[in-house]
Amino acid sequence: MNGEPEAPELARRLAGRVEDLERAGVLVVPLTRAHPRIVREAIVVRTAAGEPRAYLNECKHLPIPLDAGSRQFFDHGKTALMCGTHGALFRLEDGRCFAGPCRGDSLRALEVTCAPDGTLWVTDPGTDPADRPHRR
Ligand code: FES
User: Fold this and answer.
1) Is 84 in the pocket of ligand 1 (CB under 6 A)?
2) Which of 12, 87, 93, 95 is deepest in the core (most CB within 10 A)?
3) Side-chain half-sphere of 77: how many Cα atoms within 13 Å?
4) What is the distance in A from the centroid of ligand 1 to the CA of 75?
5) Domain residue spans in the chain?
6) CA of 105 relative to ligand 1 center, distance in Å
7) Which of 4-18, 22-36, 37-51, 71-85 has the lowest mean pLDDT?
8) How far is the CA of 49 from the centre of ligand 1 (A)?
9) pLDDT in tens, 63-76
């Protein structure tokens, strides 16, 4: 031990199975809440190459859920994530905004892993103040 406090171990949250993601196109995963009345979620999606990606369900423009509660996460072509409030578009591959008020910003990426049994797991970032949204 070097006298420094140990970083808390981050929890992993079960997102579902690979086939669930293939069928549904998106999986929504509850995360640790910073406030008991404010929902905090991850969304797991697939890239065009079929690779899973996980992002915090939160727009970069305002600190509100990307889907604004609608459970509609994609643009019409299902080729990008879309903010339900002002229509910003985010690449599936890296969460980067390429159209809309937050162009150039990126969704908060979360670690997602696929276990040998086909289950997908998201690492919960916890409630680190650095993860909190900022207003513009
Ligand atoms: S709140 Fe998402 S683009 Fe404005």
Assistant:
1) no
2) 95
3) 7
4) 14
5) 12-126
6) 11
7) 4-18
8) 27
9) 899 999 999 999 99
